[in-house]
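RECORD CONTENTS
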Amino acid sequence: MKFVKAHACGNDFLILEEAVVGRRHAELARRLCSRNTSVGADGIEFLGRRTDGSFFLRLFNADGSEAELSGNGTRCVAAWLAHSEGLNEVSLGTHGGVRTCRVISSDGTTFEIESGMGVPRVMPRSIVAEGVGVVEGAMVNVGNPHYVLFVDTPDFSAHGLAWQELGAKISTSPLFPHGTNVEFVRIESEAEISFRIYERGCGPTTSSGTGTCASSSAAIALRGAARELTAVAEGGAQRVVWPKNDAQMMLTGPAEIICIGEVLV
């Protein structure tokens, strides 16, 4: 089976043509995303091609669960379509809505891409985490679910726990029957935030496009951050612009084609 591997700030994905996989999406995700026994990735973007020429993506996480969309994964697919088919602007359907991506610059394998990410919905909410107690934060929807916490610790720890441990508790909490992505956000200045991501169905990741948007929209709506904002994760920085609360958020960041290959399945 042919595959493409790409990453956005270290958040890596395989891209497979959906027409060749049958009904094996979850099985292939668990098998091919294994970092020790297969190609390795945070998830698989299955690229569907419709008879009218449009595209639709189905995202499966490394654990085999299906998610609504990935901002970084969508951008990786856009980079691949630009590289392979010369499509420098493309609209990609997802279960979280249509995302339109536009190539700003490229050297042939690395692409800087601006994506329309929809209108974020930010809702301040306190939750009770098992063994922790009350956790203050915000539920944010950017086509998929997020819970955002604000921290001021150098290591992003909160409530006496490492962010990875608390993120796991919140992500799988019964309060979120379908799970949630969790971000730990530190305000660095009016125009910059830093954050860490515990991704539903995957665990800690170096970056997240929707996590960038969720973290940024919460910082803007609840902490007075600037509407043009740099958001820095472990894998690097992305740029967001959110003109007003009822407007679409624009996300700009890199995507790089790593390799093209075949895998035995």
